[in-house]
Design goal:
Elements lengths: L1 E3 L4 E3 L2 H10 L4 E3 L4 E3 L2 H10 L4 E3 L4 E3 L2 H11 L1 E3 L4 E3 L2 H10 L4 E3 L4 E3 L2 H8 L9 E2 L8 E2 L2 H9 L9 H11 L22 E6 L9 E2 L6 E2 L2 H9 L8 E2 L8 E2 L2 H10 L8 H12 L6 H4 L5 E6 L13 E6 L1
Parallel strand pairs: 13-18
Antiparallel strand pairs: 1-2, 3-4, 5-6, 7-8, 9-10, 11-12, 14-15, 16-17, 18-19
Helix pairs in contact: 6-7, 6-9
Length: about 325
């Protein structure tokens, strides 16, 4: 005989008892934990609170893994994975993200960002900002949301005027005579104030070290020779000629666009000073850029070809070859 204590009933055998427990509302059994609850509410609370169960109380569904439960929450419910909170509807989730200090949330776009800086960049993008800054380059009708975006456009070489980073640097050198945003000790000038050649490096197949193309200057690896040469022609290895004008900051940058991004971010507060605002406003007018490719030609580069032999890696000094002026 088999006996049920809770119901005070006898059964002929254990199979009959198990069938009784399965069918009776007085028995609510968690098979995984082998616990019998007297009510369904008790069993449900167990599913919700126990770390052994991945359970959705809204759908009365159990999952094998927590990852499956979270995926279900994302697909079927209004769920905040960062805070592990479930909301009744999308509006509740939206209000939570908008008000919570744990979130970097754009309420207009209903997008959550990984950091405050990412959110700030998003708010300064063309999604939220008008393209109020026109490119001063000849025959260029492009407009951008910030000064830094204008200068980055010019530095990239993508402007129809023919401007590039070298031309921008030369323009700033001639314009910023009081060295408000430039460091005179690092400007591209030689003896007597004459222009000094800016070095542009390039690599050939000998930069292969056996498993990657290696930059001799900083030892960064690249999977292709083209990628290495893109790295070498970037501002990475150029002089940091630009400097934040705030005495308590004085952070240095290799490009004008990087300095402008720093100023626009308001990290150090230098943008509040009138002299800085006036300098940037006048600088970005760039009236002399109407024929930038002619006035500021890029032929002042000194080309250096880095030929690195893998069998003698690394060489004691860089064997710069083919010293030519383009």
């Amino acid at each position: 005989m088999a006996y049920c204590d809770r119901c005070d009933r006898y059964f002929k055998h254990m199979t009959a008892l198990r069938q009784h427990e399965s069918n009776s509302s007085s028995h609510n059994i968690c098979d995984d934990c082998d616990i019998d609850f007297s009510t369904w509410v008790g069993l449900k609370e167990h599913y919700v609170q126990s770390p052994n169960h991945a359970y959705c109380q809204y759908c009365d569904l159990r999952f094998s893994y927590d990852e499956d439960l979270e995926e279900h929450y994302d697909d079927e419910h209004s769920y905040c994975g960062k805070c592990s909170k479930l909301f009744k509807n999308e509006y509740g989730l939206h209000e939570h993200c908008r008000q919570s200090p744990s979130h970097h949330y754009c309420a207009l776009c209903k997008r959550d960002f990984l950091s405050e800086s990412n959110l700030d960049s998003h708010r300064r993008s063309s999604i939220h900002m008008p393209k109020a800054f026109k490119c001063p380059g000849a025959r260029c009708n492009e407009a951008f949301v910030s000064r830094s975006a204008v200068v980055l456009h010019l530095e990239s070489g993508g402007c129809v005027s023919g401007a590039d980073r070298a031309a921008v640097n030369r323009y700033v050198r001639e314009y910023d005579r009081q060295n408000i945003i430039t460091d005179p000790s690092r400007m591209l000038t030689g003896p007597g104030g004459a222009p000094r050649d800016e070095i542009v490096y390039s690599a050939n197949d000998n930069a292969w070290n056996g498993y990657a193309y290696e930059c001799y200057l900083c030892h960064q690896m690249a999977s292709t020779l083209r990628a290495l040469n893109q790295h070498l022609t970037s501002p990475k290895h150029q002089e940091k000629v630009y400097i934040c004008p705030l005495p308590s900051c004085r952070t240095r940058f290799t490009t004008l666009s990087a300095l402008l991004q720093h100023i626009e971010s308001e990290k150090c507060g230098v943008s509040r000073f009138k002299v800085v605002q006036n300098t940037l406003n006048d600088l970005l007018k760039m009236k002399t850029l109407t024929n930038i490719s002619r006035r500021y030609p890029t032929t002042f580069f000194q080309q250096r070809n880095i030929s690195l032999r893998s069998e003698a890696w690394p060489p004691p000094t860089p064997p710069f070859l083919n010293h030519t002026r383009s």
